[in-house]
Amino acid sequence: MAEKKETKKKNIIKTSKKVVEKKLVEKKAKVVEKKPVVSKKVEIKVKKDKQVIEKKEIKKSKRRILKGIVIKDNSLSHGFLKVEVTRIVPHPLYKKLIKKKKKFLVTCMRDIEISIGDKVLIEETKPISKKISFRYVSKV
What are phi and psi of 103, to 5 degrees? Predict the structure, then answer.
């Protein structure tokens, strides 16, 4: 009787090891199937009077890139701008197109020449302060 119990235990241990090995192999296969995230480069062309002035390459990331108009320029004194971004969204019930506006505070370098009314690109970053979580990318 004791021998039968020992052989049963050994068989159970062997089968459990096989099951564990299968699970490990499945996990490794799942890990291999995942494709690494490749950063793509996007070219932004700045046009003026139908002539291409600059070509800038920006790495495409998961961060939002928004286009807006400068409302307030404090870049010389405090190093930030106030940018208004407008987007057109359909009404959830009536489907009429509505303009929605939101104002963002944006950090920038102090030596950039920007005036009120300029169109700019801004990119989302980690929060710099309580209100500032975007940075200036380029002038459009």
Answer: -105, 135
Number of structural domains found in the chain: 1
- pLDDT tens for 46-65 read 555 555 555 555 566 678 99
pLDDT band at 78 (very low <50, low <70, confident <90, very high): confident
Asked if 73 and 60 touch (Cβ cutoff 8 Å), the reply is no
Of 86, 85, 61, 76, which Cα lies nearest the Cα of 113? 76
Structural tokens at position 35: 């494709």
Residue in the block written with tokens 């169109």: 119
Please name the residues in contact with 101: beta carbons below 8 A apart, sequence gap of 6 or more: 84, 85, 86
Residue 7 lies in a domain: no
Is residue 99 one of the residues assigned to a domain? yes
**Residue 40 gets which letter from DSSP?**
P
Q: How far apart are CA 68 and CA 120, in angstroms?
A: 6
Cα-only R_g, the chain:
28
Domain around 77: 61-139
